[in-house]
Amino acid sequence: MSRRTKVGTLIVSMATLFVAPSLAADDPAVLKDLTAVIALQGQPCGQVLTATKQGDNDYVAACKDGSRYRVFVNAEGRVVVQKQ
């Protein structure tokens, strides 16, 4: 296999690893759940338009009104919503 083919294969593999989590975060069900969690915490949002997954149960949500929130589960197992 040529060097060019190996590099191309590596690039495609790395792109797949980084793109897959971000696609899952924009799943309509995840966006709807994040909207509900933010509303239940009493924070203004309206609707979550996009979400970036930071880790397991850890998202940064961008709302329709322009606000951004980090939504995650803390060490005690509680959901926390922090304004960004």
Report on the architecture of this protein.
The structure is a single chain. The chain has helices at 3-25, 28-40; strands spanning 48-55, 58-63, 68-73, 79-83. It has one domain (3-83). The protein has a 4-stranded antiparallel beta sheet with strand order 1-2-3-4. The radius of gyration is 17 Å and the shape is globular. With 84 residues, the chain is an alpha+beta fold.
Largest sheet: 4 strands, antiparallel
Would you tell me the structural class of the helices and strands? alpha+beta
Helix content: 40-55%
Strand content: 25-35%
Please report the total strand number as a whole number. 4
Rough outline? globular
Order of helices and strands: HHEEEE
The figure for the number of domains is: 1
Radius of gyration: 17 Å
Strand order of the largest sheet: 1-2-3-4
Q: If you average the pLDDT, what whole number results?
A: 79
